[in-house]
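for ur thesis appendix - PAZ and PIWI domain protein. copy paste whatever u need, i formatted it the way the template wanted (i think)
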Amino acid sequence: MQQQDQQFKNVKVKSNFHQFELLPDRQIYRYKIELTNYSDINAQKAINNYRQKIAENLMTFYCINLNIYSPTKIATKVLGGLNEGQEIQNIVTLKFIENIVGGTKLQQILARIVKQIVSTQQGMVQIGKDKLFWPKISHQFHAHKFEIWEGVQIVQKQFGVMIDCAYKILRQNTLLDDLLITKEVDRYEGMIVMTKYNQKFYRVDNIETAMSPKDLFITENGQETSFKEYYKQRYNIKLNDKQPLIKTHLRIKGKQEDKMIYLIPELCQLTGLNETVKSNFQVMKEVSRITKPNAQDRIDKSEKFAKQMNSTIKKGSNINILDTWGLKLSSISMNIEAKTVRPGTLLMGNENIDLSQQNLNLDQQTQKKMYQMPEKKLVWVLIHYYKERGQEAKKLLLENMKLAITEYQFYGFYSQPIIKQLQEERDKALVQLCDDINKECEQKQQKIEFIIFLLPGQKKNSRLYRCAKFISMQKIGCPSQVVLEDTLSKNTRSIVNKIMVQICAKLGGVPWAIDKLPHLFQQQHSMICAAECYDRLHQTKHLAFCSTVDKNMTRYHSQILKGADYKGDNLKKSLIVAMQVYKDKNNIYPEIIVIYRDGISDGQIPVVLGDEFPQYEQAIKQTNPSSKLILVICNKRVAGKFYQAGHRPDNPASGTIVDSKEICEGQQPNFYLISQITRQGTSQPTLYKILHSDIPNIENDIKVLTYKLCWLYYNFAGPIKIPAPVRYAHCLSEFIGSRYQRSDKDPFIPIEELVKKGVLFYI
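the 3d part is after this line
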């Protein structure tokens, strides 16, 4: 406990949380329907039949789970009878039950009030259940044909609301405009579009090229008409016949199945930025200036909208919604007790880095001898394009690699590379060249251990990237590094140094480690795991499972299961393999297993506990029943924002933890962590919940462990938003899933030889 206390420092933060207050002498009351012959079905029927009469008596009320809540108090009252065709009528009574003073019931009422307030805002467009936008507050980028709407996100939490800035990017061209240029219908799957005629938002399932506005459909009143005629009559819009239709789905409240609907491309605006805009540095700088406001601007907007909520009037009346319920929302955002985790020291090869220093610059400070590097001289290959630019890039790369290898003392690269030229920028030519190199090595009884592909192309847009990775991963079974010629045009030495860090991790080395991991996880053999499924429309699912194999939590075994998701026994199989690999490396099964699961909202918790958690239990029971399991979920999509309290609010320090009861109460222990160092805009916290722990009083150890793991991602110098195992699982699932093609003769999957090396070949 003393060691834990030394890891924390108490601080205060300002939040975007606004608390509700019940006005003096005001109460909220609960009522129930009583029946002579009671059943839940009859009670719901009575509420539906007597809704008008209940409203006359209570003035304002909400019905939640057969409970009736109102700010009006009346005595128990007979409403009438529920005629069931029987001689004895079922008498319906509205019975007073209790005053509501707090707890879950009050939270349910507040959630309903917030929902009503959100749906009542004038001059705003609602997107989803908790976001509102002002179309009139729009930042126009006419030259690039898009605009940015300003708005707010309002999330009810405990006994208050979190209010944050929100932004929506709308393109000024329609999906049809874009389709006429690209002709690629598959690229729109999953995109969000807005209908111009009523400003509703939909997700594109696919483009139905066999359909057109001439097609017929059944309207809500049962009449058959064409899309063309429907839009002419209802909106006085004349449609272009020569266009496909957009297939999407609409969720219907109270129904399990979604309703399929069709939209018109020329009436749908695209959202989000296109690739041309994303590659324009000056435009993106201006977009960031708008969409990443500083702490004070966020607080000002939060407090301004809290005042707007206080003055919201019920639709069709002049009645103030909060006044009716005797409530007031504080317009001042709350100050909250928090704490920071001391980051400790980053362990390097020759000298360590104190992470608490003020002027931390890890981009430069980590460019030195790494913690652990492969000692054996490697058989490595450098392939470059034959043209003059490729020759220049090769020379530049080798010169800077030589300097970096000497500085890092990277003995593995002291051997001379096998250098070959690629004569054509085609997949077939690259495959043939690599086959020839591999045969040459086999004749010399050598095994290729690493390949550097120096290729033409811009960032994220090399024609040969997928082919290069397929060759190294599937045909040869070694890690590889793709370097683009354009990448080396500026800051070459710094870029090459960063490449060497990645190469170290891809070869099973450890660029850096971190000290002062919680004693619990150091004293007992501990394995940290994360799972992520690649799941995109019309694409093959892939389940990635990454698990640590060493005491420092820096080396990994990485699995990928083709066609698998979280269901069935896929997680069970993955954990059994991970436990066995850990035993092979350490001669003992892990005594503690911590599993992180990313992207889980409150609504998905029952699925995790019902479908996923039992698989982990079964795996442990089957492999090593004495292993202790801890299951932690992460959610980056949260409305909470926190700032350093003081005269000028700023981003909180890296390692700030918020676990205050005002916003973190619940069945499972939970906390917000701001792990990253943010210099522009506002830090985004991640919410963690400990869904299960076989070890009691684990909360503080998990907080420290989670933060420490955020420093151990080797594709970035500094802490990231989530623990490194979670990020690696995401990288692996995305790396394989986004490039896997069902039509491939040989699948885009690593061969077993590469998997067994235990290297981060996919970062």
